[in-house]
């Protein structure tokens, strides 16, 4: 299998306040010269920023690479270099194959031309023959859902119509490499589902996709590998579910394991202190968990003296901060007075219960009371993890490739009969 995209030591530097265009007016040139003379006279130095700094990676033919990171991480700059919109300061990027790109709404469209004319124009830019474009034309228009407006100038399209047609052209004119920048941020849920399905079809057909997105579910579903950028540098390169989990946890401030080694400073009171909290799956600490298998929330705590009965409790939140559920350990063992000692208890969340995405967990040790629980020790956002669905095997997603909404996504037993 050959290499479709090769990036070696890629860097891009910008000077703050400098005119970045290749061409400028005489007034621009004179004002820039005057500004530089003043800076030298007053001993001022031009401020520089590195949008990219020594980025290297390869994408093999048929691979699907997701590029993620916060705003300003360098994702769009990377795509602009790959599509030759801008040039790197150092390093090089090599692309082997015909490229289709979608960097923003209506990329490459001429506003005065109709949708039909823009389809043929974009196809020609990609190197397609007219008969090839004609063969795909009906499929493109149907996918975009703009049949009624195909002979209307694109300047009269809504942003949603423009991006649907732009994606349809880029994805159906059979480029060997597709570069996509956050197309799923525009469009309704049905269009997003079709976009994901189309990119999966392209990957299955051996075509290469580089996908920049803030949609972590789409990245884990579509990409077998992800690249995390931060301030223009590579933070992590690996399996998409692991990279996404690292990214979400680093932004949230919690990880999949936490310890309080100093018992005197640990959360709690004179009766109970927390010692540890972990997310486990398959007997290992896990930042990314497979939705098809149970996941455990392990709590370690110390009872310091004989006292009232205590029991462990967890509370789970989804990525929007909404409560998924609370759970108490109702075992009879916690109904007796607490004996001093060290304890480890694990709450097992069934397979195919949680929905995909980020989940954070509060852990606590409480006593039963009425009408409320009496807390003794607790930690908000003690641990977190990312739930992913590999898209194969027995999960509640089935063959559906879109987003299933809701905090939970259980796999239910269904019974049917024909009447």
Describe this structure in words.
This protein has 419 residues and is of the alpha/beta class. Helix content is 24%, strand content 33%. It has eight helices and 19 strands. The strands form four sheets. The chain has a six-stranded mixed β-sheet, sandwiched between helices. Strands 10, 11, 12, 14 and 17 form a five-stranded antiparallel β-sheet that branches. A five-stranded mixed β-sheet has the order 13-19-18-15-16. Strand 15 and strand 16 (323-328) form a beta hairpin. Helix 3 runs parallel beside helix 5 (159-172) and helix 4 (130-144) packs across helix 5 (159-172). The longest helix is centred in the N-terminal third of the chain and has 16 residues, at 26-41. The protein is globular and about 80 Å long. Mean pLDDT is 86; it is low at 19-23.
Annotation field: number of helices: 8
Poorly predicted regions: 19-23
Element string (H = helix, E = strand): EHEEHEEHHHEHEHEEHEEEEEEEEEE
Helix content: 10-25%
User: Which class best fits the helix and strand makeup?
Assistant: alpha/beta
User: What is the terminal-to-terminal distance?
Assistant: 53 Å
Total beta-strand segments: 19
Radius of gyration: 27 Å
What average pLDDT do the residues reach? 86
**Strand arrangement across the biggest beta sheet:** 5-6-7-3-8-9
Multimerization state:
single chain
What shape does the CA trace take?
A: globular
Beta-strand portion reads 25-35%
| Main sheet characteristics | 6 strands, mixed
